[in-house]
Structures are given as C-alpha cells and as structure tokens.
C-alpha cells in the first residue's frame, strides 16, 4: 500500500497545480498568448511618452530577437520592448519603450545609422496572421515606422565644411523627392505610414492621419504613435473594441549598425481595445526600468500554495516511509 503513496502524492500535486493555474488564469506559455490591452482614458494622453500619465501605466514587456528570416539578417541589440496602449475619443495611442544608452539622431554619413522603431499590423483586422517580414501578396501589412533622424532639425554643417548649391529646385531635378521618397520631402515627419505585400513592395501611404513622437531620457527611448480608429487609406486596418488585432514590433539601434533587416523583432501578439481603465502603479516607473516587471499577486499566491502542498506531501511521504509498520504488503 505504501508504495502507491508516492504516485498518489504526485497525482494530487498535479491536480492542485492545474486547479490553481485555472483559477488564477496563469499561463506558462505567456509569450505565445500575450495580449496587450488598449485601455480607455478620459483625456488626451499626448505624444510625450516620458509624461507621468504614460509612465504610471503598467507596461507589457514583449521579448524581441534578432531578425533571422530574410537577408540582411542579424540585430537583436534590444532584448525586450515595453508596450503601453490607450484610446481616447476613437483614437488609438501605442507607446514603445526600450533601453538604449547611445541615442543616434543622425544618419548623415554612409557609416551612420539612426535609431528607429516600427509597429506592424495586418491590413485587415481579424484576418489571418500575416508573414512577419512585410507580409505576402495576399496578406498585406500596415507598418508605422518612427525614425529619430526625421524628428529633429537637419544636422548643421561641420567646421570648415562647404556645400555646393544646386541651381534647380523643382522636383524634376530632385529625383528622390519626385519619386515620393518620404525621407526626401521638404516637410519632415518622424513617423511614416507604410504598406507592404511582400519583399520589395514597401510603399509610403499618402495618409497624414498617423502622428508620432519619440522622447529620449534616462537611457531609454519612449515613442508614441497615434491614429484614429477609422483608416484614411487602403491596406490600413480599422480598430474596434469588438475585434482584437494582431501586432508585432521592431526596433533598430543605430550605434550597433542596425538598419534594414538587421533589427530586433517580436513575434505577433494581440492588441485588444477595452473600455476598462488602465492598471497603474502608485508612482511612475523611472530608474528601475526595464528591471521592473508588473506584479501578479494571484500568481505569487499560487506559487506559494503549490510550494506548501509539495512540502507537506513530501513530509508525509517521508514520514510514512520511515514508520516501522512491518514489511510492505503488495495488493493482489
């Protein structure tokens, strides 16, 4: 009989673990089923991610890895990105935050690259999850990209430098501007609304509904994007509380020579617009980021309870094993 006790104890522990995970909704495979809540706020949150209104919201940390799907491959300087999302008056705001101890504002030389970040959505909410790198011909994607070198003023002329003035200023003689290259336009924007349907198909959208701004402080970037729920162009998703949408993230660290496909990327996760208020800290997260991880009291209680059950079961088993009750009797 006593030989059956260890098996019975193990079975009881497994049942208790399953029940506690069910009650607390704790998921060991959280990275595969992560959901980002876009919470309701009562006033315009603004585009300054360093503001206390943004920093007091609990972030969801999304792991990122080097891009290893298509050349040029590599990157991975950023290991995780903190995501916050809210909505106000039918506008979606998404904030990305990550550590970067060397901000890169200019790409004014062939060997200099800018810091950047991007959010990728399927062109239609609720559709099949698209291919992570630029989608496919039948699975288009909408990409919101922010670049630090497009946010500030153009770099000044270095000492003893000179420049030749070109006499023609119309678009006919400025081929990149005439072709619609968003980086060559006279009116600079830090965010670009892009669509793609496979490699080599990345195209800039004419929509100016997308807004964004990046702020650098205390060794980290904080970038906020904003767009109305309703799209202003083709191949751009509509956002709705009734339909969660897949979303993926990418970050480039210019000082690590990251550009193009060399970047840190996340897997697709889910973004759900909710009428609930955002969960907040008592004080804004500052110096402890990104070491800070939002607490989960129920998960902590579950782990403690499971540990207690294991200890008690082990003690009972050890006690019964050492009892001098005579020889074990096998059941027939």
Number of helices: 5
| SSE pattern, N- to C-terminal | HHEHEEEEEEHEEEEEEEH
Helix content: 10-25%
* Overall structural domain count: 2
Describe the main β-sheet briefly: 14 strands, mixed
Mean pLDDT: 80
Second CATH tier, the architecture of the largest domain: Sandwich
| Number of DSSP E strands | 14
Structural class: alpha+beta
- Runs in which pLDDT lies below 50 for 5 or more consecutive residues are 24-32, 283-288, 291-297
Instruction: Tell me what portion of residues adopts beta-strand conformation.
Output: 15-25%
- CA-based gyration radius: 26 Å
Please give the alpha-carbon distance between the first and last residues.
11 Å
CATH topology-level fold name of the largest domain = Immunoglobulin-like
- Report the CATH C-level class of the largest domain: Mainly Beta
Shape: elongated
Commentary on this structure:
With 332 residues, this protein is an alpha+beta fold. It folds into two domains: 1-26 and 296-324; 32-154 and 163-295, Immunoglobulin-like. Helices cover 17% and strands 25% of the residues. It is built from five helices and 14 strands. Strands 1, 2, 3, 4, 5, 6, 7, 8, 9, 10, 11, 12, 13 and 14 form a 14-stranded mixed β-sheet that branches. The model is unreliable at 24-32, 283-288 and 291-297 (pLDDT under 50).
């Amino acid at each position: 009989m006593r030989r059956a006790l260890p098996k019975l104890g193990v079975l009881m522990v497994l049942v208790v673990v399953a029940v506690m995970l069910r009650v607390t909704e704790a998921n060991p495979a959280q990275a595969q089923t992560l959901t980002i809540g876009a919470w309701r706020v009562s006033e315009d949150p603004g585009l300054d991610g360093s503001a206390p209104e943004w920093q007091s919201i609990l972030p969801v940390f999304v792991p990122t890895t080097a891009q290893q799907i298509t050349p040029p491959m590599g990157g991975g300087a950023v290991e995780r990105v903190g995501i916050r999302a809210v909505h106000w008056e039918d506008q979606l705001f998404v904030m990305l935050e990550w550590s970067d101890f060397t901000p890169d504002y200019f790409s004014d030389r062939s060997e200099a690259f800018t810091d950047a970040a991007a959010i990728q959505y399927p062109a239609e909410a609720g559709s099949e999850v698209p291919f992570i790198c630029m989608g496919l011909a039948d699975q288009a994607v909408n990409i919101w990209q922010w670049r630090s070198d497009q946010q500030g003023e153009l770099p000044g002329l270095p000492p003893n430098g000179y420049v030749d003035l070109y006499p023609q200023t119309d678009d006919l003689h400025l081929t990149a501007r005439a072709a619609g290259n968003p980086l060559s336009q006279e009116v600079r924007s830090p965010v670009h609304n892009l669509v793609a349907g496979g490699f080599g198909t990345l195209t800039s959208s004419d929509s100016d509904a997308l807004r964004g701004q990046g702020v650098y402080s205390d060794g980290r970037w904080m970038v906020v994007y904003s767009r109305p729920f309703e799209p202003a162009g083709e191949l751009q998703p509509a956002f709705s509380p009734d339909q969660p949408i897949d979303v993926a993230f990418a970050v480039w660290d210019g000082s690590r020579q990251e550009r193009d496909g060399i970047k840190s990327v996340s897997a697709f996760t889910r973004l759900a617009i909710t009428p609930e208020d955002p969960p907040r800290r008592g004080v804004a997260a500052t110096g402890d980021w990104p070491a800070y991880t939002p607490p989960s009291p129920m998960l902590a209680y579950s782990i403690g309870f499971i540990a207690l059950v294991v200890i008690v079961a082990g003690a009972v088993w050890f006690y019964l094993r050492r009892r001098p009750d005579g020889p074990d009797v096998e059941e027939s």
